[in-house]
Write a structure and sequence with these properties.
The chain is mostly helical. Helices cover about 75% and strands about 0% of the residues.
Length: about 220
């Protein structure tokens, strides 16, 4: 039991950490690229991004499994029941939880700040790291915490596309399910309590360090 718990914890933390880093980078680029688009086009793209908020996780996992199987038939790349597949699934499933705080933070930055930096000769790269990023810091903190916490809490998607392979795709949520299936409710209670406490701690840290509830609220337009 201890070995399974340690192994699943390492897989979960690895998955959450890698997915969050990739999501921060991806969502930052997406938010900056979508911002200047016409309103209707931007709303269509944001709707696709936000689908995982309302779509049952098993539906997304089912279609990802079909896509992974189809890709594997043609190029031999096996993403189903692999850690790489879990990363891709986690990115898609947690995308809106990371994108929205970043989008809100960037939308709240006045153009005058970046325009002033531009008149002083700052390049686009320098303006982002010296002006935009510091002003949007709270949004990025919220995005990182939400993305990390949401990935740790995944179940339907990871079970559908990753199965339950110890040391490879068995994450803590799947291990909890396994405990229940085996009738080991004592271990299930202990693991559930740990996950509950961890989730509470992450959310408390987000509100404490970001200092903004608006970071996770829908954008008002």
């Amino acid at each position: 039991m201890i070995a399974s718990l340690v192994s699943s914890t390492l897989v979960t933390l690895k998955l959450a950490g890698l997915s969050t880093l990739l999501l921060i980078f991806l969502c930052c680029i997406m938010a900056m690229a979508i911002k200047p688009l016409p309103k209707n086009l931007a709303n269509i793209i944001r709707t696709f991004i936000s689908i995982p908020l309302v779509l049952p996780p098993v539906v997304l996992g089912f279609y990802l499994l079909l896509v992974f199987s189809w890709v594997g038939q043609y190029d031999g790349l096996s993403l189903a029941f692999s850690f790489e597949g879990l990363v891709l699934g986690s990115i898609l499933y947690s995308l809106p939880f990371v994108y929205q705080p970043i989008q809100n933070a960037l939308d709240n930055i006045s153009r005058s700040h970046t325009e002033l930096a531009a008149t002083m000769g700052a390049s686009a790269f320098d303006r982002f790291f010296s002006v935009t990023l510091p002003l949007a810091k709270n949004g990025f903190i919220s995005a990182a915490i939400l993305g990390f916490a949401h990935t740790i809490g995944e179940f339907g998607v990871v079970l559908m596309i990753g199965g339950n392979i110890p040391g490879e795709t068995q994450v803590l949520s799947v291990l909890l399910y396994e405990y229940v299936e085996m009738g080991d409710y004592n271990s299930a209670h202990n693991l559930a309590a740990i996950l509950l406490l961890f989730s509470f701690s992450l959310l408390f840290a987000m509100y404490h360090f970001s200092g903004s509830v608006n970071a996770i609220s829908p954008v008002k337009r």
